[in-house]
Write a structure and sequence with these properties.
The complex is a heterodimer of chains A (494) and B (708).
Chain A lengths: L10 E9 L4 H14 L2 E7 L9 E10 L18 E4 L2 H9 L9 E5 L6 H4 L9 H10 L3 E5 L1 H8 L3 H12 L6 H11 L3 H14 L20 H13 L5 H14 L2 H17 L5 H14 L4 H8 L2 H10 L7 E8 L3 H7 L2 H9 L1 H8 L6 E4 L3 H11 L9 H21 L3 H9 L8 H20 L7 H11 L6 H9 L1
Parallel strand pairs in A: 1-4, 4-5, 5-6
Antiparallel strand pairs in A: 1-3, 2-3, 7-8
Chain B lengths: L6 H7 L6 E5 H11 L4 E4 L6 H8 L2 H7 L2 E2 L5 H7 L2 H4 L4 E7 L1 H16 L5 E7 L13 H7 L2 E3 L5 H18 L3 E6 H5 L1 E5 L10 H6 L13 H23 L4 E3 L6 E6 L3 H10 L13 E4 L1 E3 L3 H8 L4 E5 L6 H12 L5 E3 L12 H15 L15 H4 L16 H14 L4 E3 L17 E2 L20 E5 H18 L5 E6 L27 H7 L4 E5 L5 H13 L6 E6 L3 H17 L4 E8 L9 H4 L6 E4 L10 E4 L8 H8 L6 E8 L3 H27 L3
Parallel strand pairs in B: 2-3, 2-4, 4-5, 5-7, 6-7, 10-11, 10-13, 13-14, 15-16, 15-17, 17-18, 18-20, 19-20
Antiparallel strand pairs in B: 1-8, 6-12, 9-11, 21-24, 22-23
Helix pairs in contact in B: 2-3, 2-9, 5-7, 9-12, 13-16, 18-21
GO molecular function (chain B): indolepyruvate ferredoxin oxidoreductase activity; metal ion binding; thiamine pyrophosphate binding
Pfam families (chain B): TPP_enzyme_C (PF02775)
Keywords (chain B): Metal-binding, Oxidoreductase, Pyruvate
């Protein structure tokens, strides 16, 4: 590749890819400090500007052994000519490869395997994330040596900053001809957060010796029954449902017993069993239905939200997440916006329907529900209020929302039943279309509207023309924007 | 400067003869000005030259001791007009700005000073914001140098060369009575390196002394008949003087062998990249020992006809490496070669890209193409590298710039987006500043931007019947020119548009410099001049100041009223909250100190409950805050990632406001964490949490009984 005259090359090029605010500049300065201290010449450059505001930034450092003559140093990394790349995030590691900074013949590639999602990935209405696995696979091929680990976790563990961890990984990689003490001295000389930066350095240094490691994945252990009712349902699942649906059904039953009671979980299993009876191997529809049905049946109402918000486990989770120290007091305030509609849905069906059906009454009542509420869950008053609402659980079956949801669920299951024998793929598509229904308030209404519009359009087609692919496309369009325009266009074109 | 200290950099400016300066390029220029005996300095901040302005703004005592006058100018036009001090007096003066935008603003004054000419050395330092990382239109400052006849210096990018260029520029300016521009690319401004310092020099004449002994020479003023004489003087006197100085002082450089079949002519600022390209092709080494003759133009305007002719003579072809377009140097070289009646072929843009950065890689490719045709005997390596396979490349997302965590400008656009649902889409005329990030995801708000402070002016063609246009302007742009070009114009012409002035207390996009309406006290300048007073003073009647932009309800109400009010004339909403970046710079150390002293400190941040979040991400589409992200769903039944607030959250409050205003979901919570609580507070809250915990335990037992 590069035909550089190696004998003349007494130089090390280091590219740092970081996001604004991650301290890429600090890292570049530390590296130069170390090098200068050892009598090397060091030059660093960057193009900060707007990229400093959350964008990705490339810093470039060149080190050259000092001699009689001043070498001519480059101001930017040149593909094929970069000895070390340090990237603060997985996709930035990918970007280093995209720009050919990392090459198999030369580069030590040090990259974090954690993700900081870009705005396009974050704002998707479903899952807009890019695949990190592909980046890691490519990194192994497109670098002389790839050092990859979760730098964010290392930063957390050491209570440090990611730039210190990257500096440690550089030191630990052995790619620079300077001893560990020299790196640590640079941190000391900077005089800022020395203790924590040294801890971060140490984390990075050690991680650089270890094999490539991805961030810890969440482990979803299959729930084990703890009560008689639980054991009975557990036995039913194993006995009546095909194996591919077991895991989801166990999670589903656990969810619904927590949500309502064993009777509700039984209803869930009955529904599931009926569909399973029509399904066949590989049982994909049943397995997916186990998941989607549990989600739909545990729809989020005021009772559920009040319950989840006021649990001790939740208080503990918040304390841990906000990193509250010993002896610090944590107050939690919720931003709730229950509207008249949601309240009526929680009331017994008859009363709820009556209020919503009486325009003057509901518009009079509505003014009490126009403002969002700041609910301070950690205060006695609001805590008791939330427990009171959560305590309405036994009455849920009589609520308006319950009636509405069960009706919709039955209709949906009916659609699945009607198509499963003739077109299993379509049945699976119908099961999965439940993913459109989620959220609260406006979000919920939009999702439901889309779901119903698609359902209506599907069944408006001649029976022979109701295809799984069309349904899948429609769901994708429904998740393409939150104005509903993409879906409207598609349905109008149909 | 308000929230950042440049004391360490100021120390570097004090280095004396023989001491080694190690630091950034733009700071080296700053030091070089003092070594050159500059009498006055002005400019307007902006990447990549902000540092020069920031450091001088913090160096009052040093400047006073040297008798140097410094001003943070109101605009580049103001700065350029300062150069008037060098017209009649032997005062060396320098001004700096981001180019090409700053040069555009300054060009009226520049034309005037270039026409009349100067007595004292006049230096214009332009940070050429071209290529990667640039935030502005891609144009060349070169054109301004040519059309006004100012010499353009483009030094080799290493600190000794740059420092030397500053000193030579003043001499060149004085020798030819012509202002000189020093062009520094972004990377050169931010490049670290070393040079051996000299003592700072007091100016031979200070601005005080000049003012005390006024000199008048009306032949230096641009008015007939002098303006016609100026043109003749430029051609007959200043031009030859400039060429003679460049030639005699050998400002341009030559590398490689004296003779060759082919040669290269390169802009000085590109020299390092060219050398690297040649190194990779096996045509040079790390010290610039080129195997081909290279003529390095540290002065890119004017070209020196004798030098060009001498270099081209005997060569079959010469490649000119000139970044950007139009290729002024290539055109001029062709003319010079023709006039010298040489048969040398000038090759340039035919083998190099017309647009974009001339990186080492780009130049290596061009050079390879050139040599393959003109010196095929050379066996050059192929530098191409197989691209990252498309399926992998497709995973890598773009990372457009966005508002910082907790930025007070974000709620302004959240309000506009929510209001759009009520009132329908509106034409939005955007401005220059951080607020221009509104045009990027997730807001995608804004139709055009016409320049700094020109948001309101950019909406002035809209004379709406029902639907008003909205203009956005920052406080920086407002004081730069927006007050007159935007608000004054709208008042005078009875425009009915709505202007949102984002008043965050700083010129935030350029690094947080103070401006007239800054709320902080500034020892050297006056602040606290409210924007509302200014717009009322110029005749605006409908003005609302919202002093907390995070208050979506008030923000939306003000915008709604502005959009629908029956009152005629411009509607101005001043959206006022402090820039979070600068606020945190001040507050973080203060809070840390208070914590360590055992004082009561309340910290607020937001969070999302993953068990109630359903993964729709509406909240993100109305915010885009870096601290509001997503993470894998901990729920075994769900697939879509859940929203998540990381620890960088500063508790600005927008997430909660958005959930309320947009009726989103109850997943957000605000946690207020009290460190070092008072005794009474500690006792009462401990009791309260014990009571709550007791109830929670009871509920947990009940739940466990009916659990799976």
């Amino acid at each position: 590749m590069a035909a550089t005259n190696e004998t003349a090359r007494d130089r090390i090029g280091i590219a740092i890819l970081a996001l604004g605010g991650q301290g890429g500049g600090v890292l570049a300065d530390w590296i130069q400090e170390v090098a200068r201290h050892h009598g090397w010449l060091a030059q660093g450059t960057s193009v900060p500007g707007v990229a400093q505001r959350t964008g990705s930034t490339v810093y470039y450092v060149e080190l050259a052994r000092a001699g009689d003559r001043l070498p001519i140093l480059a101001q930017m990394p040149t593909p094929g000519d970069v000895d070390i790349v340090i990237a603060s995030e997985l996709m930035e590691t990918g970007r280093a490869m995209l720009r050919n900074f990392s090459t198999a013949d030369r580069t030590t590639l040090i990259g974090s395997t954690h993700r900081i999602y870009a705005i396009a990935e974050k704002s998707g209405m479903g899952d807009g994330r890019g695949s990190g696995e592909r980046i890691v696979e490519a990194a192994a091929r497109r670098a002389k040596r790839f050092i990859g680990f979760d730098m964010e976790a290392a930063t957390e563990r050491s209570g440090s900053v990611i730039s210190a961890v990257m500096f440690g990984a550089l030191g630990g990689s052995g790619a620079l001809p300077f001893p560990r003490e020299a790196f640590e001295q640079a941190i000391r000389d900077s005089g800022i957060a020395v203790a924590s930066n040294l801890r971060g350095f140490d984390e990075g240094f050690r991680a650089a010796q270890a094999p490539v490691a991805m961030p810890d994945a969440i482990d979803h252990a299959v729930p084990q029954p703890t009560t008689d009712a639980g054991r009975a349902l557990h036995a039913r699942i194993l006995g009546e449902l095909p194996a591919p649906a077991h895991a989801a059904a166990l999670h589903g039953v656990q969810r619904l017993m927590d949500y309502q009671d064993a009777g509700y979980a039984t209803l869930y299993l009955d529904r599931l069993r009926d569909i399973a009876a029509l399904d066949a191997a590989p049982w994909e529809t049943t397995a997916e239905l186990a998941r989607h049905l549990a989600l739909w049946m545990s729809y989020e109402d005021i009772i559920r939200v009040a319950d989840l918000k006021s649990r001790a486990t939740r208080f503990d989770r918040v304390r841990a997440e906000v990193k509250a120290g010993e002896g610090q007091i944590v107050g939690i305030t919720e931003f709730m916006h229950p509207r008249l509609r949601e309240l009526c849905e929680t009331l017994p069906a008859g009363i709820g329907r009556f209020i919503l059906g009486a325009p003057r009454l509901s518009s009079w009542l509505d003014r009490f529900f126009r403002e969002g509420r700041h609910v301070e869950t950690t205060s006695l008053r609001w805590f008791l209020m939330l427990r009171l609402l959560a305590g309405l659980r036994p009455m849920r079956r009589r609520s308006l929302r319950y009636a509405e949801e069960q009706e919709r669920i039955e209709a949906w299951l009916g659609d699945v039943r009607a198509s499963i024998a003739r077109d299993p793929a379509l049945a699976l598509g119908i099961v999965r279309s439940q993913r459109l229904i989620k959220g609260y308030g406006d979000t919920f209404e939009r999702g439901l509207r889309n779901f119903q519009a698609i359902r209506a359009a599907l069944f408006a087609r001649p029976p022979g023309d109701r295809r799984a692919q069309w349904l899948d496309d429609a769901c994708t369009q429904a998740l393409a924007d939150d104005s509903g325009r993409a879906l409207e266009d598609m349905l109008a074109a149909a | 400067m308000a929230e950042r200290s440049f004391a360490a950099e100021v120390e570097l400016l004090k280095l004396g003869e023989g001491e080694t300066f190690t630091g950034e390029g733009i700071l080296a220029v700053t030091k070089a000005l003092l070594q050159s005996g500059v009498a006055y300095v002005g400019g307007y901040q902006g990447s990549p030259i902000s540092h020069l302005m920031d450091v001088f703004a913090d160096a009052n005592d040093l400047l006073a001791s040297l008798g140097v006058h410094f001003e943070a100018s109101a605009s580049e036009a103001t700065a350029a007009a300062m150069l008037a001090a060098s017209v009649n007096y032997p005062l060396r003066g320098a001004v700096a700005w981001k180019s090409v935008v700053g040069t555009n603003v300054a060009s009226d004054a520049l034309s005037n000073v270039a026409s009349g000419g100067v007595t004292g050395g006049a230096l214009v330092i332009v940070g050429e914001d071209y290529g990667e990382g640039s935030s502005i239109m891609q144009e060349r400052t070169h054109a301004f140098a040519m059309k006004s006849q100012m010499w353009l210096i483009d030094p080799r990018p290493n600190l000794p060369s740059i420092v030397d260029a500053v000193e030579q520029a003043f001499r060149l300016s004085e020798a030819s009575n012509t202002p000189v521009m020093l062009e520094l690319r972004v990377r050169s401004c931010h490049m670290t390196g070393s040079f051996v310092a000299k003592d700072n020099r007091r100016p031979a004449m200070t601005v005080d002394e000049a003012a005390a002994a006024p000199v008048r020479d009306t032949s230096r003023i641009v008015l007939p008949p002098a303006n016609f004489l100026h043109e003749v003087e430029k051609v007959e006197k200043r031009w030859p003087a400039g060429i003679a100085f460049v030639q005699e002082n050998r400002l341009n450089e030559w590398f490689g062998p004296d003779e060759g079949e082919v040669g290269l002519i390169v802009q000085g600022g590109l020299f390092n990249s060219l050398n690297r390209a040649m190194e990779l092709l096996g045509l040079s080494d790390a010290f610039g020992a080129a195997r081909l003759p290279v003529y390095c133009l540290n002065v890119t305007y004017p070209l020196i006809p004798d030098e060009v002719a001498a270099f081209c003579r005997g060569k079959r072809a010469v490649l000119v490496l000139e970044e950007g377009q139009p290729e002024f140097i290539e055109h001029e070289l062709n003319t010079l070669v023709r006039r010298a009646d040489l048969q040398t072929r000038i090759v340039g843009k035919e083998v190099l890209p017309r647009a974009g950065d001339y990186t080492a890689h780009v130049m290596a490719q061009g050079l390879r193409t050139f040599l393959t045709e003109w010196q095929p005997a050379l066996d050059l390596p192929d530098l191409s590298i197989a691209p990252l396979p498309a399926p992998v490349a497709a995973q890598i997302p773009q990372r457009p710039a966005g508002f910082c965590t907790g930025c007070p400008e974000r709620p302004v656009f959240t309000s506009m987006k929510l209001l759009e649902r009520e009132l329908g889409p509106t034409h939005v005329s955007a401005d220059i500043g951080c607020h221009l990030f509104s045009i990027l995801p997730p807001f995608n708000i804004g139709n055009t931007t016409m320049g700094y402070g020109l948001g309101t002016a950019g909406a002035s063609a809209f004379k709406p019947k029902d639907k008003r246009a909205i203009a956005v302007m920052g406080d920086g742009g407002f004081w730069h020119n927006g007050l007159t070009s935007g608000i004054g114009n709208a008042v005078f012409n009875k425009d009915d548009t709505v202007t949102v002035i984002v008043d965050n207390g700083y010129s935030a996009a350029t690094g947080g410099q103070d401006i007239l309406s800054s709320r902080a006290d500034n020892r050297a300048r006056t602040t606290r001049h409210p924007i509302e007073t200014a717009v009322r003073g110029i005749g605006a009647g409908w003005v609302r100041t919202i002093d907390r932009t995070y208050d979506l309800k008030r923000m939306m109400a003000a915008l709604r009223e502005a959009m629908t009010s029956p009152e005629r004339g411009p509607k101005i909403v001043v959206a006022q909250s402090e820039c979070m970046l600068n606020r945190q710079r001040r507050e973080k150390p203060r809070v840390r100190k208070a914590m360590s002293e055992g004082k009561r400190v309340v910290r607020e941040r937001f969070g999302v409950d993953p068990d109630t979040c359903t993964g729709d991400h509406s909240c993100i589409r109305l915010s885009g805050c870096p601290s509001l992200s997503i993470k894998p769903n901990p729920d075994p039944l769900r697939r879509d990632p859940v929203a998540h607030v990381d620890n960088s959250c500063v508790g600005c409050g927008l997430c909660g406001e958005v959930s309320h205003a947009a009726v989103l979901c109850p997943s957000f919570y605000r946690a207020s964490i009290v460190a070092n609580p008072g005794r009474w507070e500690g006792w009462w809250k401990a009791l309260r949490s014990r009571l709550i915990l007791g109830l929670q335990k009871r509920d947990a037992r009940v739940r466990a009984a009916r659990a799976f």
